[in-house]
Design goal:
about 625 residues, alpha+beta, GIY-YIG endonuclease, 5 domains, 8-stranded mixed β-sheet, globular
Length: about 625
Amino acid sequence: MFDIQEELKKLPDKPGVYIMKNVHDDIIYVGKAIVLKNRVRQYFQSNRNLSLKIQHMVENIDHFEYIITDSELEALVLECNLIKLHHPKYNTMLKDDKQYPYVKLTINEEYPRVFLTRTMKKDKAKYFGPYTSVGAVKDCLDFIKKVWKIRDCDRRLPRDIGKQRVCLNYHIGQCSGPCNALISKEEYNKVIDDVADFLNGKTQKVTKMLEEKMASSAENMEFEKAAEYRDLINSVKIMSQKQKMSNSGLKEQDVLAMARVDDDAVVQAFFIREGRLLGHDQFFLNGVEGLSKEEIMTDFVKQFYAGTPYIPKEILLEYAIVESEEAIIKEWLSERKGHKVEIKVPQKGEKSEMITLASKNASNAFVQIDEKKKRELKATAGAADELRDLLNMEYLNRIESYDISNTSGYESVGSMVVYEGGKPKKNDYRRFRIRDVIGPNDYKSMEEVLTRRFSHAIREKEELREKNLDEKFGSFTTLPDLILMDGGKGQVNVALRVLEGMKLNIKVCGMVKDDNHNTRGLYYDNEEVPIQKNSFVFKLIARIQDETHRFAIEYHKTLRGKVQLHSILDDINGIGPAKRKALMGYFKSIEAIAQAEEIDLAQVDGITPKLASEIYTFFRNRKGGN
């Protein structure tokens, strides 16, 4: 038994990370401390200074763990890594785990290459980025190949010079052939200098070169070449316009501004390199209710820069980092960068103007999010409300949908898909491998699935009650408000029979199909309820139906993949592929074979009276054993 008050006395006077856990041993919060003893004790003293969110967290703490570190900096790094790994419920969480593309120029090689990468290493290569569009990076690389003919092969040069023929890129004019010494090392490295200038935003030189080549081609009446150079010049202008920012005060900065509404926040980021706006993006955080803007910005900076490989020289913020963490965060970022990183909150000038622009974009993001949420609400909770009204139900939140999938009765499986508030709740999905039904009998299979699902719920509720635990801790205890069956009257009656036998009062609704097997309405309370095909409720039912099919078929394919063409007949001694084929050809189904008498089985070619007796006994024992 974990005694929190006793364990608090054992906390050390050292820096480290503390990990709060609930009764299920789930990590619900991760934090760092300069002195573990002082920081962790604060949670269990007066809660007057704790936010409502943290108060709820403390109420759910069953036990805690801690990891001692040598310094606060080590604690910060460990905290960031643990939050990213475990996504604790009560930490402010950055929703987007993005890996941006970079352009890598391998100047650490004798014959450098240029290519896209998403990781940065300490390998003395040059990295350009981050770019927020993979398409933009690919356009840039295509342009470089066409203009400067840089190699992109993985041959080790100069070691491998002359060992292989030149590749296709050379023949199509996108490589200068250093692998066969078709360009000198000095000339190749001059080209690399031009590429580096271009990637740094210095486009005047390449534009002038292309204009000269275009003019020369036109004079020599090589109009196709001239047109190619013209297109390349236009490409330079487009790329330059996308990236250019006429702001001499900004060189290498990330600009971060924030907007928040209730429990959500959005951070707008501008990435500026060599005075160019190289990219911009928005990042969404949840769990921010009760936190100050400074606390939210601090959490974002820690999580974002723990995951991005590039650290700029300067980070401009709309709101300051929490004072107690500013020094250690600067130290951490500077260590990662390799030289000093500045964090500033500009109040005037060009930098302040950039913050204002980023802030406007962040606020605008919430307007767009609100509109998106309204559309989603109509399609989810709104559609569920429509269904409730359509069926004259008082309350409808949780819908469970069931389906059966099999191949000729073999490896039958059932799926249970759950929707709450019109949205899938995937953690509550369940799969059932049919145990007691022989042959392709969907009604019997469905009866088994429903019986197992609700028997489990009843049994689990009793066990939790005996242990004085809340029902929410059970995996099957939450019952649906509505069961949605893929079939019509027959499937509905199966479900009602199971529920009646267990004395459960749950509404059941079936999907009625037209001649083309498309849903046209619902079977409910012995009546067909029509649905408008363009309504939100129709689309919701279609989504649930498709998801239930997908989940069942996915499981069935998994099992089928394990046994391939295995048949239940293969489990009978003396039955091989030929006899199996003969039996299926004669009886047409596994179910018919299972119900056949010995004399009928012996009529099949290759089935002796002794084998007929084996088959008969096998299926009778199987049925009796269930």
